[in-house]
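Check these lines:
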Amino acid sequence: MSDNDRPEVASRLAESRAQILRAASSVFLDAGFERSSIDQVAAAARMSKQSIYDQFPSKIALFEAAVRSELEAGQSNIDTIEPTGDREETLLAYGLRLFDGFADPTNFGLFRANIVAANHLPELADELHEHRLGLSRTLADYLDALIRDGVLADVDPLSASIRFGGLSVEGSRYFLGMPLPRQEDRATLVARALDLFLHGYARQADAHGPAIDALLDQAAPPVIDSGVALRLSAEKLQKLIDAAMAEFQEHGYSGANVDRIAAATHISKATIYRQFGNKEGLFRHVIEGEIYASSLCDFECDTGEELDEAVTKLARQVLDWHLQPSNIRMHRLLVQGSALVPDLARRFHDMRVAVVGRALDRLLSAHGWPRPDEAAARSFYLLATFAVRFLTVRQPPGPVQRDLHSRETARLFLHGLSVEQAWRISEGTIS
């Protein structure tokens, strides 16, 4: 028997490993992956750096182990479903536990760090996200039983379980500047998600809210308000904005260097500061430009088509828009910078929802359906984009998979998965 196999030695190693992982979780949560170091973890764990390297050969290995440890700890919150005999009561209870696990500060912070790490650790981020998706298997098994009992429509249960999870926690919204809801408000959010999941939009539709139009009406290009005459030509200014965007997306706000931006554009650092005040001023101008560019997007909507087909085509356009590499990088950048500029991160998300909501409004109105309010537009947007699923993957879905996702989006959003609801629609009892 080796020393490591002795019970007392194994126990000490397990305790040491747990101590390291607790410290690593805290450090990665506070500083993010890129700005963290093994030295910081060693200090937090109150042990030598070599003791950490004895168990984890690199910072990447430690980050992976820390995230996996938190995922497994959080899994106990959702690894069982206790059927009550009432599917809505059962799913509501599960959804609330799912939200509570999502909102746990450590789990939330490391999930956020995983999204940010995708820029430089794509394989790890992809693998960890797939591990998260695997946690949906418990719900998938329950949904599969409902499908076999003829209670739910015949759909892929794993995909449906991921969809329900995304609806329940509202996708990337809380990673992009929106404060997490209070405990007492979560039941309302999950209940609304469940109602859409089972019964579709028609039953839960409310009057058209003003929030979508108001945000679009206020959209305007960013203005340099430094009080100093602009000395850059339009061409030089655009070159500066492009270089700044590339720098921020590559290194994040904290790691971005104005000297590198100045060198790439042959514009002096003094000129950049004179126009924008500081790095944050430049960052804000760049993001404001992206928000305005989003407001100009206009999707094609054929109001003469059958509604299901038209909504499927809209969902596909939204998914293609979302999967553009520049948009994925922008989401990662703003997830990382959401603590610094929560107002911009939130407005970036809300503007994209508003643009999608505008197109959805045209389609639903043309077919006599209730006009969508902000919550309905947000639900359609996160279904069409598949919530946060593609923010960390290395390989985006191909055309066939995108078509499938978009058809799922239209079916779920319009009609839900309840077989009873589908029968009522076929009988013409829902307008």
Remarks:
- Residues 191 and 214 are 27 Å apart (CA to CA).
